[in-house]
């Protein structure tokens, strides 16, 4: 039966449908905390279609926008008739956490770590190119050790254009050369190659500090653009978070519904003739 997975980020919300363990459909929409439950229902039902919406067997969510957690819970129960598993403290992830402040850990960071280690056991590093660029390290024993959080490239570019009066906003794409021969190319080089250099440098430091040759996987909407220029990223999966939600949902089976009491035949009084 289909499983609905929901990754609520600060900028975008990514939804996916899994059937038989495989991601069959996915969508990316703008995150809007002001949308009501009913507005979300219209949006999600329109994406899924009536047949898929009626056949959902469960739902799992990672959410970094607290105001939307209750909205999506109500959406799933009231409009789709399924319970929503929200990744939060108390949910079984199957991964020991070495983080010293686990209550401050974004659920998407842990979900990415679970997905990456499930796919390739051993020392693993996940790079998530989102609103923030997040780098997570999983030990060879499958423990979540922690990570690094940097401003995402879009945040960095917005700060650059807001603070430098003579610089105009440019499209985020690969310039012809590292040394830009126009101002636009120079900005693109700094944003793309500069961000990749930061990620590669941090990944190498993590590997050196822990004495590992970790497998590095990238995710997030901009992962393909950056991974193509990286010297350390070995794999790209834009929907790694959704896959992690699938894995965690399977590790938290719903309690079995109590069996219905056996029907007994009512005994009527014998009639007399």
Short description:
The chain is α/β, with parallel strands linked by helices and 273 residues long. Helices cover 35% and strands 22% of the residues. It has a five-stranded mixed β-sheet with strand order 3-2-1-4-5, sandwiched between helices. Strands 8-7-6-9-10 form a five-stranded mixed β-sheet, with helices on both faces.
Report on this structure.
With 273 residues, the chain is an alpha/beta fold. The chain folds into two domains: 3-86, ATPase, nucleotide binding domain (Nucleotidyltransferase, domain 5, 2-Layer Sandwich), CATH 3.30.420; 102-238, ATPase, nucleotide binding domain (Nucleotidyltransferase, domain 5), CATH 3.30.420. Helices cover 35% and strands 22% of the residues. It is built from eight helices and ten strands. The chain has helices at 37-48, 50-54, 69-79, 107-119, 153-163, 183-210, 223-227, 240-250; strands spanning 3-8, 12-19, 22-30, 58-63, 84-86, 124-129, 132-138, 144-151, 215-219, 235-236. The strands form two sheets. Strands 3-2-1-4-5 form a five-stranded mixed beta sheet, sandwiched between helices. A five-stranded mixed beta sheet has the order 8-7-6-9-10, with helices on both faces. Strand 2 (12-19) and strand 3 form a beta hairpin. The radius of gyration is 23 Å and the shape is globular. The model is unreliable at 262-273 (pLDDT under 50).
């Amino acid at each position: 039966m289909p499983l609905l997975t929901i990754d609520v980020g600060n900028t975008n919300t990514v939804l996916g449908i899994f059937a038989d363990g495989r991601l069959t459909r996915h969508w990316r929409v703008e995150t809007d905390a002001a949308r009501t439950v009913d507005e979300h229902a219209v949006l999600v039902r329109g994406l899924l279609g009536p047949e898929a919406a009626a056949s959902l067997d469960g739902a799992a969510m990672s959410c970094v926008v607290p105001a939307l957690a209750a909205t999506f819970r109500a959406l799933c129960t009231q409009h789709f008739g399924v319970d929503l598993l929200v990744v939060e403290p108390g949910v079984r992830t199957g991964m020991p956490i070495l983080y010293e402040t686990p209550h401050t850990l974004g659920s998407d960071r842990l979900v990415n770590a679970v997905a990456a280690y499930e796919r390739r056991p051993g020392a693993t590093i996940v790079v998530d190119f989102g609103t923030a660029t997040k780098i997570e390290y999983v030990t060879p024993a499958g423990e979540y050790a922690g990570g690094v959080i940097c401003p995402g490239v879009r945040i960095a570019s917005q700060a650059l254009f807001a603070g430098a009066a003579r610089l105009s906003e440019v499209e985020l794409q690969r310039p012809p050369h590292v040394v830009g021969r126009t101002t636009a190319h120079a900005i693109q080089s700094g944003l793309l190659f500069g961000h990749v250099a930061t990620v590669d440098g941090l990944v190498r430091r993590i590997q050196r500090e822990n004495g590992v040759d970790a497998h590095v996987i990238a995710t997030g909407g901009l992962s393909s653009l950056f991974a193509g220029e990286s010297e350390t990223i070995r794999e790209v999966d834009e929907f790694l978070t959704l896959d992690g939600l699938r894995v965690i949902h399977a590790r938290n089976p719903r309690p079995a519904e109590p069996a219905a009491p056996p029907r007994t035949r009512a005994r009527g009084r014998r009639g007399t003739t």
